[in-house]
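Priority: low. Protein: Phosphatidate cytidylyltransferase. Input follows.
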Amino acid sequence: MKQRILTGVIAAALFLPIVYFGGLPFVILTYLLASIGLYELFKMKKLTIFSPYGFLSLLFLWVLLFPPQYEKFFNEFYYSKTELGIACILLLLAYTVITKNRFTFEEAAFSLLSAIYVGIGFYFFMEVREAGLVYILYSLFLIWATDSGAYFVGKAMGKKKLWPEISPNKTVEGSIGGIVCAVLVAVIFSLLTEINATTFSLIGITIVLSMFGQIGDLVQSAYKRHFGVKDSGNILPGHGGILDRFDSLLFVLPLLHFFHLW
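Result:
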């Protein structure tokens, strides 16, 4: 527990100032986090990111992440994000032929889906931050409240297993407790900030986001169970990997953007 707390404090001290100031440092941080996330998925699958297919997958991820405010960079070369992304996909598929199927179609599909899974979530990390610091803080508080509520309510009164095949410790009672806790925190957050939503609509949005945050957690648990690993990585001692910390955000942030709160 001491290691977990120490890692959390150090990570917050490094992470929060960059989130607060935003801009290019935040974009660089997001690229770094997403790249580590893709590396973690490759490692679970026992693929190496330091390979031609790994480079193509990273390139596809980086193109997918490219924020709109910097897209004029592509105009200098007369290409769009979509065109470059398609080129990466075609090259990755061509690599299966070049290697005479030693790099299989299934591995190519895994590489692409992994880049999309990580890339979409972290792309909207930048989009939500661009909309305003208040929305990033809302997302972080929502996930923290959901996780804490689910843990303590589940521990106190959890009986019915939520999805034992994927995550045996999670309960239905804990899941509901997490949603209730998230709603309470969201209401308090709306009273203390200038988030652009009525209390009624924010409650509805919070319920949906809290549910999908838990689904994001379960998706990562399913990945780990499928590949037989405890954590996605070990870059954060006591916490695991980047995906262990951002699994809920990868689902919450795109949905938050789609709700058009700003």
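The mean pLDDT is 90. The longest helix spans residues 199-227.
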